[in-house]
Design goal:
With 57 residues, the chain is largely without helices or strands. The protein has no helices and two strands. It is 0% helix and 7% strand. It starts with 9 loop residues before the first strand and ends in a 39-residue tail after the last strand.
Length: 57
């Protein structure tokens, strides 16, 4: 997935506005007074920059 494929903001099924790849400001991070939406987010791994699927352990 390249950066052009990542939406800047999306609305979760719960109605919470998510900011993929920016966990500190994402309203779905569970720390902003809204329910945590991370487990169901299609862009979950973007919030973990250390994850690189091309690297081998």
């Amino acid at each position: 997935m390249n950066n052009n494929d990542i939406p800047r903001k999306i609305i979760d099924v719960t109605g919470v506005e998510l900011t993929p790849g920016e966990p500190a400001v994402c309203l779905g991070n569970g720390e902003q007074g809204c329910e945590c939406c991370c487990d169901e987010c299609d862009y979950f791994l973007l919030c973990f920059p250390e994850f690189d699927p091309s690297k081998k352990n």
